[in-house]
Write a structure and sequence with these properties.
54% helix, alpha/beta, binds 2'-deoxycytidine-5'-monophosphate
Length: 229
């Protein structure tokens, strides 16, 4: 069955769309799938983060002109060196979520994503994009769509672990965790309630809650779905 499916789509890219909340495990899943199948992968959140980071560097994040500046930066954005540590900060993430409410900016970044796909079409037999609007907007006809979520407490704990901070007092850790939970709730709310391409599962997406499963178990679950097992 899977061979037949692969033959049918032989001359098209196989498309896998992964959406979900922050720190739900979607990024790790996307990378692991890309490694397993040899597909090209784009973390689309990094495009929004890169624009936000540039705004912070250039000190141009005041609300009055933020849309004009972010669109200007986005037009000149090259999809290289996106995997930098500085893009990972919560400050950058919050500003990314804010500017992502702009339909104009989204149009520019959507175009960049389409360009990326076109450029890689000949080199790769498949692509994996992860973000917020992949299944609903960027790849509406994807072969597989997944929507990954988890409780906000679990997601904040994961983020904190990623940061690899050693705390002197238990209370400091608790405070940081609470602050992270608040930031994530705010960001999810902004991402889910914006008018243009809000975070929401596509009707034909597999919705998976990762609160009680490991990254490895999620990967197994998803590969079974893809391979029709
Ligand atoms: O996936 P991430 O946490 O790196 O994304 C950062 C922000 O970028 C997210 O809060 C909302 C925005 N984003 C978006 O609006 N659409 C996407 N496809 C990806 C990210």
């Amino acid at each position: 069955f899977i061979l037949l499916k692969l033959l049918i789509v032989r001359f098209q890219m196989i498309e896998i769309a992964i959406d979900g909340t922050a720190a739900s495990g979607k990024g790790t899943l996307a990378k692991k799938l890309a490694d397993k199948y040899g597909f090209v992968h784009l973390d689309t959140g990094l495009l929004y983060r890169k624009v936000a980071n540039e705004l912070l560097i250039q000190n141009k994040s005041d609300p009055k002109n933020v849309e004009t500046f972010s669109c200007k930066i986005a037009r000149n954005l090259e999809l290289v060196n996106l995997n930098k540590e500085e893009l990972r900060s919560e400050e950058t993430a919050s500003l990314a979520s804010l500017i992502a409410t702009s339909p104009k900016l989204r149009d520019i970044l959507n175009f960049k994503q389409k360009e990326f796909l076109l450029k890689n079409k000949k080199k790769f037999s498949g692509c994996i994009l992860d973000g917020r609007d992949i299944g609903t907007k960027i790849l509406p006809n994807a072969n597989f769509k997944f929507f990954i979520d988890a409780s906000v407490e679990i997601r904040a704990k994961r983020r904190l672990l990623e940061k690899n901070i050693s705390f002197l007092h238990e209370n400091d850790e608790k405070c940081m965790l609470q602050a992270l939970i608040k930031k994530m709730i705010d960001r999810d709310r902004l991402d889910s309630n914006r008018t243009t391409a809000p975070l929401s599962p596509a009707n034909d997406a597999y919705v998976i809650d990762t609160s009680l499963i490991s990254a490895e178990q999620l990967f197994e679950k998803v590969t079974k779905i893809i391979e029709g097992k």
